[in-house]
Amino acid sequence: MTDIDLDRLLGSDRDDPGCDEAGELMDAYCDLVSRGEPVSDQFEEFLTHMRNCDACREDMEGLLALVRERASEEPR
C-alpha cells in the first residue's frame, strides 16, 4: 500500500472544510481548471476534502466534465 492509498483510506491530516464549504468552492474551482488557469492557495483545503470525500470528488469530476463539454461546444 502506498502513502497515497493510506491517505485516501485514513484521510489527510490537513484541514478539511467538509462537504458544505467544499461545495461552495466547486464551481469556481472547475471554472479555473477548465480554462487551464492556475489554482490558487485558496483551494488547498478544498483539494484536501476532494481527496478525503469520494462523493464530493465524484460530483466535482462530473461538474468538470460538464463544464469542459460545454466549453468545447461553444463557437470560437
Record keyword descriptors for this entry.
globular; 76 residues; 0% strand; mainly alpha; 4 helices
Report what the structure shows:
The structure is a single chain. The chain has 76 residues and is mainly α. It has a domain of 45 residues. It is built from four helices and no strands. Helix 2 packs across helix 3, helix 2 runs parallel beside helix 4 and helix 3 packs across helix 4. The radius of gyration is 14 Å and the shape is globular. The N and C termini lie far apart (46 Å).
Rg computed from alpha carbons, rounded to a whole number of angstroms: 14 Å
Can you give the helix content as a percent range?
A: over 70%
Q: H/E series, N to C?
A: HHHH
Number of alpha- plus pi-helical segments: 4
What does the main sheet amount to?
A: none
SS-based class: mainly alpha
- Note the beta-strand portion: under 5%
Summary?
This protein is an all-alpha fold and 76 residues long. It contains four helices and no strands.
Element layout with pairings:
Blueprint: H1 3-10, H2 18-35, H3 44-52, H4 54-73
